[in-house]
Amino acid sequence: MDHHYDPQQTNDYMQPEEDWDRDLLLDPAWEKQQRKTFTAWCNSHLRKAGTQIENIEEDFRDGLKLMLLLEVISGERLAKPERGKMRVHKISNVNKALDFIASKGVKLVSIGAEGKETMVEILRPAHFALFCLSHSWKDGLGFCALIHRHRPELIDYGKLRKDDPLTNLNTAFDVAEKYLDIPKMLDAEDIIGTLRPDEKAIMTYVSCYYHAFSGAQKAETAANRICKVLAVNQENEQLMEDYEKLASDLLEWIRRTIPWLENRAPENTMQAMQQKLEDFRDYRRLHKPPKVQEKCQLEINFNTLQTKLRLSNRPAFMPSEGKMVSDINNAWGGLEQAEKGYEEWLLNEIRRLERLDHLAEKFRQKASIHESWTDGKEAMLQQKDYETATLSEIKALLKKHEAFESDLAAHQDRVEQIAAIAQELNELDYYDSPSVNARCQKICDQWDNLGALTQKRREALERTEKLLETIDQLYLEYAKRAAPFNNWMEGAMEDLQDTFIVHTIEEIQGLTTAHEQFKATLPDADKERQAILGIHNEVSKIVQTYHVNMAGTNPYTTITPQEINGKWEHVRQLVPRRDQALMEEHARQQQNERLRKQFGAQANVIGPWIQTKMEVQLFSFSFSFLACQSKFHLTCRSHEYSNNTAPLSFSCFSLSVPGMPWQLSFLGCDHSGTLGPEEFKACLISLGYDIGNDAQGEAEFARIMSIVDPNRMGVVTFQAFIDFMSRETADTDTADQVMASFKILAGDKNYITVDELRRELPPDQAEYCIARMAPYNGRDAVPGALDYMSFSTALYGESDL
């Protein structure tokens, strides 16, 4: 839907305010109050330049003080004024001032250097929002609330009375003049005696509160920034000192330990070698682990320090010569190499002395394990449990026997190891060789007997398996065919008894077609039933002929022929019942279809009327600015209205960005979630960006568009807008920001004094700055002046700090 701006509607809305302003212009008291208020406001700024005015219209007539006032307010230099006394010189100066005001985006309608407009009209603030001024300011509570909010110690707000506006106003004006350096621009009697105070005069006075409080907030922010930067710098210096000390201690310990590990003097006794081994174990268990932890902590401290320096824009830390992490790793590698060689030497020496005892103990352990495994195996292989077993039990016995054969083959390696150890002991003339040989011979003989019994049992199990396999195959065939046929019958019974819910004739016709297809499969199903029953009869014949001992029923299924016959009869009974239900439902759906057609015809008549009403409602949405929010958030609401012929939709998005003075709300009619170039430009202007229609403004806007629309698609997505605003409002400390903060604390001087540092910063950080700041040697230096600029630069460059 298209939205059009209606100028007549806006004029009607603003008409009462314009009538009220015209009435005030005819009121001499109001005009006097205007001159007094704006004269005081101008003097509050001109005092910074060492001058003031008495008559706002006469003193600004030559344009000199008007240009000076604009320079003080904006902080910028205007064009050089004309110093002549002629009328043409005065008009030229006034025009320069008006041109400067217009360059800042302030529209001057019907105002010129030769016009009859009063200077009060020219200097009125252009962008104050009007907020319920007639009551909150008139009784004085609004002014007192402003002061109490920022300086609660100056006014006890709880003791103020709403019915005493004169006392409230005088209290606020006196406190503001005495403690906040805000001149009295208003008289309490004038405000109380006026039916409706002048909003512009009051808002001009309120703006002085804003400047007073914002200055204090800037000083506090500057002090906080400096504290944060100094705290980071102090923490980094402590980490550097800790790293140097820890690295020195670790390198010294490595230097002392390596010679001990490189000592290879052998010992003659086992006891002495055991003592060396015990000392080495104490080293690895008690002495080395803490050093490993120190080494890890050292690397963690180094990496943490480098990360902090990088994130705070400081230069990387360079340890002393020989104390780099790589130097420590190289020294540690030498320690590990010496430790490895020492350990291998100790083990080789101990193995050399313990070889004979170790071989004997190894033989005894392996022999005991083997004898424990063979216990009872011969009796198991001689059992005849297969003679009365079923086929499934025979197969289980065969699998169990195969597992035993695998286990037997696995133990072959142990038997060979036992024989090899016994042979080695004989070659080394072990003192107890006869007993070792006797035990080894017994193990070998038993092993041969187990192999013969294993082969005999396998042959017996295979003969029994063949006898029962034919019957088992028939049982399995019966189970394979009975199970799916039984499932088919159960599914058929469920389908035939299932309650169906349909809404159209097509649905009931589909059910009827499916039912007819099901009935066509019944003859084939009956043939399958008879084949399954035939398999069961064949099994019974084999059991009777060969007198096979068959314990229990079919092991593969619990479905009996009786169950199959019973379910088959039930299916045959349910088929005609389903036929009758489908016929009745088909008749009901035919009746419903007639009713739906009647409803559709009436709905098509009322649909266009509903669409017209909805379009009128959607046309009433407009574009507005909202107040600044404390943190970034996004709200999206979507609504859609539609009828059967014309869908209507709109979307509304609201965006606020921390640090920006406005919150933007906009309405998109295309439902795309994107902004066109002109819409995006309007958003930037509303957020405070200086993007005019001149060449400089167009160049700046083109630069921003290249960031949010790099592919030149001609639109700005919502995510691209969020990313751009996040980058614009990011707060990263730099040397320039720290110098600017020090300059605020120094009162815009190029140096700072000891007293100012101690007054604005915490004691420890103030002393830190005093100890490290160099004396200031500029022309405007005073005794004890310190150079904060070189100090701020050193924080982010090469320095001994």
From TrEMBL:
<dbReference type="InterPro" id="IPR014837">
    <property type="entry name" value="EF-hand_Ca_insen"/>
</dbReference>
<dbReference type="GO" id="GO:0003779">
    <property type="term" value="F:actin binding"/>
</dbReference>
<feature type="domain" description="EF-hand">
    <location>
        <begin position="696"/>
        <end position="731"/>
    </location>
</feature>
<feature type="coiled-coil region">
    <location>
        <begin position="394"/>
        <end position="428"/>
    </location>
</feature>
<feature type="domain" description="Calponin-homology (CH)">
    <location>
        <begin position="137"/>
        <end position="214"/>
    </location>
</feature>
<dbReference type="InterPro" id="IPR002017">
    <property type="entry name" value="Spectrin_repeat"/>
</dbReference>
<dbReference type="InterPro" id="IPR011992">
    <property type="entry name" value="EF-hand-dom_pair"/>
</dbReference>
<dbReference type="InterPro" id="IPR018159">
    <property type="entry name" value="Spectrin/alpha-actinin"/>
</dbReference>
<dbReference type="GO" id="GO:0005509">
    <property type="term" value="F:calcium ion binding"/>
</dbReference>
<comment type="similarity">
    <text>Belongs to the alpha-actinin family.</text>
</comment>
<dbReference type="InterPro" id="IPR001589">
    <property type="entry name" value="Actinin_actin-bd_CS"/>
</dbReference>
<keyword id="KW-0479">Metal-binding</keyword>
<dbReference type="InterPro" id="IPR036872">
    <property type="entry name" value="CH_dom_sf"/>
</dbReference>
<dbReference type="InterPro" id="IPR002048">
    <property type="entry name" value="EF_hand_dom"/>
</dbReference>
<dbReference type="Pfam" id="PF08726">
    <property type="entry name" value="EFhand_Ca_insen"/>
</dbReference>
<dbReference type="Pfam" id="PF00435">
    <property type="entry name" value="Spectrin"/>
</dbReference>
<dbReference type="Pfam" id="PF00307">
    <property type="entry name" value="CH"/>
</dbReference>
<keyword id="KW-0677">Repeat</keyword>
<keyword id="KW-0175">Coiled coil</keyword>
<keyword id="KW-0106">Calcium</keyword>
<keyword id="KW-0009">Actin-binding</keyword>
<feature type="domain" description="Calponin-homology (CH)">
    <location>
        <begin position="32"/>
        <end position="136"/>
    </location>
</feature>
<feature type="coiled-coil region">
    <location>
        <begin position="229"/>
        <end position="256"/>
    </location>
</feature>
<dbReference type="InterPro" id="IPR001715">
    <property type="entry name" value="CH_dom"/>
</dbReference>
<protein>
    <recommendedName>
        <fullName>Actinin alpha 1</fullName>
    </recommendedName>
</protein>
